[in-house]
Design brief:
Chain lengths: 111, 112
Amino acid sequence: DSGVTQTPKHLITATGQRVTLRCSPRSGDLSVYWYQQSLDQGLQFLIQYYNGEERAKGNILERFSAQQFPDLHSELNLSSLELGDSALYFCASSPRYTPKYFGPGTRLTVL
Amino acid sequence: GQQVMQIPQYQHVQEGEDFTTYCNSSTTLSNIQWYKQRPGGHPVFLIQLVKSGEVKKQKRLTFQFGEAKKNSSLHITATQTTDVGTYFCAGVSSFGNEKLTFGTGTRLTIIP
């Protein structure tokens, strides 16, 4: 158990819909990262927040947005969903700037 | 942008044989990390290497960071069925925003 929690575990939705994925970092960690992993693919970095502020952006689509709240939990919002958005979405946390501890992931299926 | 490649993409070995995966970055790295992801699981942090030429061991696993800090390797001696999974390296570039870029991964399967 990494100490990073993600909800929900599974999410099934339809194209065009909007969903919100939630992540709670390990206690004391200020950084939260979001990664996308498509079937049998590597991990694509989406975005990083540090203590509430956006710190780095990766290959995040304009339809996706994220934020980190004062209690340090983070949410990833995915809108106008397409079939290709089906993937595992991982959140990771760390005390500072390099991710270390990954959550169990949210499996998103877009039908 | 920074790219991190791993070879091989897949490796099937007989139980008890050794296994090595290689990681190459297009840019110099300040540090490199290795992760293991079991089928259906999440990446689990194994180790971080920081110094040029650094070698670290964890039981049957040996991790090496190249002298030029652009490549790394993971060697497993006498594989066991519990070693099954995908091994990812992930590097932090020496230039810029400390973003961690994951390699393409090597999927290891063990033939009992």
